[in-house]
Amino acid sequence: MLLSGGIDSATCLAIAKARGFDVHALSFNYQQRHVIELEAARRVALALKASDHVILDLPLGKIGGSALTSNLQVPKNSTLEEIGSGIPITYVPARNTIFLSFAVALAEVLDTGDIFIGVNALDYSGYPDCRPEYIRAFEKMANLATKKTVQQELRITIHTPLINLTKAQIIRKGIELGVDYAMTHSCYDPDPDGVACGGCDSCILRRKGFSEAGVSDPINYR
To answer: Is residue 110 in some structural domain?
Structure first.
């Protein structure tokens, strides 16, 4: 289970547990400016009783190319139309491809073919590696890429239970499963104390989701 500590990954973990999976959480310190999300990931993994939680260090800051891994400015106060109009500067080059590759490696070691990722293709920030066609292509590649899949000992399945849900539907599902969203973190540009900015694309989509779900967002904003 790829776990960022945000709304989507926390809900995805709860869904995996509800389906009876023994969940092994995997997170990444990829030199992101919102590294405080790892604290949220630890809280989520503990609260939702993941069997273990591995955090890997990846120096994606040395590659840059994103407002999340460099000194580029995080966009603020965009309209919903602007958020959905293209691929934003918060896109991290090949991030999900990199993350899923590590997940495939860990899955093979754990002798499982089931990988969960909380990507969403409706209320999202235009990232190309969150689309259904990308997931299908990666799954096909993964089944050609490992010893156990080639020897037909495993079949890799990328589970995306949130991909066709709105943010409001995701939140309602999480609440139904007992997820406490106070322990999650979504902001791309929090202050040094971890308080969300309220104006980045991720904060805007989070606030929209809670509003449409008719539920109060339990976190604070600047």
So the answer is: yes
Contacts for 5 with CB less than 8 Å, ≥ 6 apart: 27, 37, 38, 39, 40, 41, 42, 43, 44, 184, 185
- pLDDT band at 132, cuts 50/70/90? very high
Which domain range does residue 167 map to? 7-213
pLDDT digits (tens, 9 = 90+) for 145-196: 999 999 999 999 999 999 999 999 999 999 999 999 999 999 999 999 999 9
* Coil/strand/helix, residue 74: coil
What pLDDT, in 10s, does the model give residues 41-55? 999 999 999 999 999
Q: Is residue 146 one of the residues assigned to a domain? A: yes
pLDDT recorded at residue 125: 63
The Cα–Cα gap between 136 and 140 comes to 6
> Which DSSP category does 75 fall into?
P
- CATH code at 191? 3.40.50.620
**Residues 6 or more apart in contact with residue 117 via CB below 8 angstroms:** 1, 2, 9, 12, 96, 99, 100, 103, 135, 158, 159, 160
Q: In terms of Cα–Cα distance, which of 25, 36, 27 is closest to 191?
A: 36
Question: Is 44 part of a structural domain of the chain?
Answer: yes
